[in-house]
From TrEMBL:
InterPro entries the record matches: G_HFLX_dom (IPR030394), GTP-bd (IPR006073), GTP-bd_M (IPR032305), GTPase_HflX (IPR016496), GTPase_HflX_N (IPR025121), GTPase_HflX_N_sf (IPR042108), P-loop_NTPase (IPR027417)
Residue ranges annotated for the Hflx-type G domain, each copy included: 174-442
Residues annotated for GTP binding in this entry: 180-187, 205-209, 227-230, 296-299
Domain of life: Eukaryota
Cofactor: Mg(2+)
Protein name: Hflx-type G domain-containing protein
Membrane-spanning intervals of the chain: none
Keyword NAD: no
One Pfam entry name: GTP-bdg_N
Organism whose genome encodes this protein: Solanum commersonii
One GO cellular component term noted in the UniProt record for this chain: cytoplasm
One MF annotation (Gene Ontology) recorded for this entry: GTP binding
UniProt-listed Gene3D superfamilies: GTPase HflX, N-terminal domain, P-loop containing nucleotide triphosphate hydrolases
Chain positions recorded as Mg(2+) binding sites: 187, 207
Length: 467
């Protein structure tokens, strides 16, 4: 079973469906909503006679299709390349010969033949198919890494320039990164508050290029809002890493705004997934605690009463029925358990194929090896304990502090602000909140320097005065 992911019965049932549907409608490929190992993917393709896409493969395809800028294209290609590398599987062809791909095509690439060595031949003579594939991937990988490095340097320079030049009053322009689950409405919200157009669409990963938009807050202060790539539950770490250059905007931002689709039935899971990714890319605990949580699409909630505020006593969380937009998401519930140990698979299966290069689910060694290490990823792999993390309400008068605890919404925690990016509800409140969040730091600093020094009052002196 581990060699095909599904049991024999399921594989046969799907095969029957595929055959009957194929004659009627024509099927191009089959999507399995799980992460398959290279050998499982190959075996399923053989069994079903169709290309099989798993979760990572599909996300990479979407990233590729949506990438507009050079940066996004580079990152998408890098993710695709690393994925391909993890899928270098040798299969036994119809004639009993080992080869690559369904037909075992292009197996031997040199005059010297397969397996005859070839080290030291610059032309690649004597290379096996595997060696050739590996060499090509390595060459392209190095090229992509150096280009991505360049992209990161450019971003750093741009960030530094933004800080140096500042706003019209000479002040630094703060950056606010808008993060959230894919399809939560981030781009729509950023467009709405900045009155500019950003590409929004009811599809997954509509945005893969980071976009900055300037917004004037009610106080007159200018901020830059950065719209980011959407997150997803079970986002493979390799994709997070591939998009690290983009996600650096999030790590470097002065403030984070977490946009949630309040109508999603799995709102809590989506929140956890986002917090997990934020932890993985190295966002500090302090920034997470300071983060603004926005419940967007409030107009889709049953408890929406027109002014954007819910009658919180009456209706609990969003339900399946009011969630047309969210229903096409890759939901956690849809996921099947999987076993990603390819070596084990090979030992156990042995019959259909052989895994040659096992990088499944782990490119981090690629990314942090050698001199690439400091230039590429500072990945510590730690997760934020988001589920139980509590932001304590120190000051009851501080209306922006949120306590993540059981409330009238059951297990849902309270948002800081509720918005509808489509109808405009809550947008002014969000801008005021940004003002509020960005202001105090300056005030506190000023306060510290302006205050005159006085000797500290000890317990004794105070008692003496009281007497
Ligand atoms: N009803 C309703 N729909 C909304 C709202 N905000 C966004 N949408 C819709 O939700 C869909 C997704 O919006 P986007 O802004 O593209 O979402 P996103 O979070 O940027 O998505 P990615 O870029 O894929 O991560 C679009 O069809 C929007 O029109 C809202 O407040 N109410
Ligand atoms: Mg978007």
């Amino acid at each position: 079973m581990t060699d095909t992911f599904f049991g024999r019965g399921t594989v046969d049932t799907v095969k029957c469906h595929v055959n009957s549907l194929d004659t009627q409608e024509g099927i191009d490929a089959i999507f399995v909503n799980a992460i398959l190992t290279g050998i499982q993917q190959r075996n399923l393709e053989q069994a079903w006679g169709k290309p099989v896409l798993d979760r990572v493969g599909l996300i990479i395809e979407i990233f590729n299709a949506h990438a507009q800028t050079k940066e996004a294209k580079l990152q998408a290609e890098f993710a695709a390349l690393m994925y391909k590398k993890s899928r270098l599987v040798r299969v036994r062809g119809p004639g009993g010969r080992y080869g690559f791909g369904v037909g075992g095509e292009a197996e031997v690439v040199s005059a010297r033949g397969r397996g005859s060595g070839g080290r030291g031949f610059i032309s690649g003579a004597g290379e096996t198919e595997l060696q050739l594939q590996r060499r090509r991937i390595l060459e392209r990988k190095n090229q992509l890494l150096s280009e991505i490095k360049e992209v990161r340097r450019t971003r750093e320079l741009q960030r530094a320039a933004r800080k140096r030049h500042g706003g019209s009053d000479g002040q630094e322009i703060p950056t606010v990164a808008v993060v959230g689950y894919t399809n939560a409405g981030k781009s729509t919200l950023v467009s709405a508050v900045s009155e500019s157009f950003l590409y929004c669409n009811d599809r997954l990963f509509a945005t893969v290029d980071p976009k900055l938009r300037s917004v004037i807050l009610p106080s007159g202060r200018k901020v830059l809002l950065s719209d980011t790539v959407g997150f997803i539950s079970e986002l493979p770490i390799q994709l997070v890493e591939a998009f690290h250059a983009t996600l650096e905007e999030v790590v470097e931002a002065d403030l984070l705004v977490h946009v949630l689709d309040s109508s999603a039935p799995n709102l809590n899971e989506q929140r956890e997934a986002v917090l997990q990714v934020l932890g993985q890319i190295g966002v500090s605990e302090q920034k997470l605690q300071n983060m603004i949580e926005v419940w967007n699409k409030i107009d889709l909630r049953e408890d929406f009463v027109g002014d954007g505020y819910c009658n919180e006593d009456e209706v609990p969380s969003g339900s399946e029925e009011n969630n047309d937009v969210a229903s096409n998401k890759l939901c956690e519930e849809d996921l099947l358990d999987y076993d990603d140990n390819e070596d084990e698979d090979f030992e156990q299966s042995g019959k259909l194929g052989e895994v040659i290069d096992d990088q499944q689910g782990n490119y981090s060694d690629e990314l942090v090896s050698g001199d690439e290490q400091d230039s590429w990823i500072d990945y510590n792999g730690s997760l934020v304990g988001c589920g139980s993390a509590e932001v304590q309400q120190n000051d009851p008068s501080n209306k922006w502090e949120v306590v993540r605890s059981e409330n009238q919404f059951g297990s849902e925690s309270a948002p800081h602000v509720k918005t509808s990016a489509l109808t405009g509800v809550g947008l002014q409140e969000l801008l005021e909140l940004l003002d509020e969040k960005l202001k105090p730091q300056k005030t506190i600093e000023k306060d510290i320097f302006d205050r005159k020094w006085r000797p500290p009052r000890t317990e004794d002196t105070r008692i003496a005065v009281e007497q």
